[in-house]
Amino acid sequence: MRFDIISIFPELLKTFKETGLLKKARDKNLLSINIYNPRDCAKPPHFVVDDYPYGGGPGMVMKVEPIVECVEAIEFASDEKKLILITSPLGKIFNQKIAREFINLDRIVIICGRYEGIDERVREIFNAEYISCGEYILMGGEVAAMVIIESVARLIPGVIGNEESLIDESYKENFLEYPQYTRPRTYRGYNVPEVLLTGDHERIKDFREKQKRRYSFDEQT
């Protein structure tokens, strides 16, 4: 899978793609992460990427031309399954269900919003989808892009070293994952539940199922 990120702050994303399992996955050619700066497509001498909003109002709006030309400069295969996203509070909220849907794509392009947003014509030209990573406001879309990439990437076969961890994990079948414990057995008077020390797999399974049912959520549709 290929991820293309459009951002005026590419330095925020460079360390991200060079860290941990994402770097290992890239080294194994399981995925690629490419970063593009729309300033490279802005007009000299000042390479401006934002301007005042038509109709008035506070703040600045990201200009249509640099972003459109930046996306158009990316080479796309005619037969690949792709999706162009724009990070915005206007969008549907990203969740695990959506992450599982995205895994069927060949390429995801994420345009990172900034300031008061992106000129609406960007969405119209590319038939892009707005997407949000939560019901709160960020300074920009780079963090949201990282959330989406990491959530989707870990579902790609081979990215997670122990793929059994994907079978019984959080946000599966509307229940959160059960609490986890490791050594030491006792710490400052807090003990590991005795049932986990019995070796009785049926009792342990039953205990974990009950723990999972303490919390539940309704997946967004």
N- to C-terminal separation?
24 Å
Fraction in beta strands: 15-25%
Instruction: Indicate the low-confidence ranges by residue numbers.
Output: none
The largest beta-sheet arranges its strands as 2-1-6-5-7
Number of helices: 7
Shape: elongated
Output the structural class.
alpha/beta
Helix % is 25-40%
Compute the CA-based radius of gyration.
21 Å
Topology pattern, helix = H, strand = E = EHHEEEHEHEHEHEEH
Largest β-sheet summary: 5 strands, parallel
Count the beta strands: 9
Q: Quick check: average pLDDT?
A: 90
Q: Descriptors for this entry?
A:
two-stranded antiparallel ribbon; elongated; about 30% helix; five-stranded parallel β-sheet; about 20% strand; alpha/beta; 9 strands; about 220 residues
Describe this structure in words.
This protein is 28% helix and 18% strand. The chain contains 7 helices and 9 strands, in the order βααβββαβαβαβαββα. The strands form 3 sheets. The protein has a 5-stranded parallel β-sheet, with helices on both faces. A two-stranded antiparallel ribbon has the order 3-4. α4 links the parallel β5 and β6. α3 packs parallel to α5. It is elongated. The model has no long low-confidence stretch (mean pLDDT 90).
Task: Give a topology summary.
Elements: E1 2-6, H1 11-17, H2 20-27, E2 32-36, E3 50-51, E4 61-62, H3 64-72, E5 82-93, H4 96-102, E6 107-111, H5 120-126, E7 129-132, H6 142-153, E8 186-187, E9 190-191, H7 201-212
Parallel strand pairs: 1-2, 1-6, 5-6, 5-7
Antiparallel strand pairs: 3-4, 8-9
Helix pairs in contact: 3-5
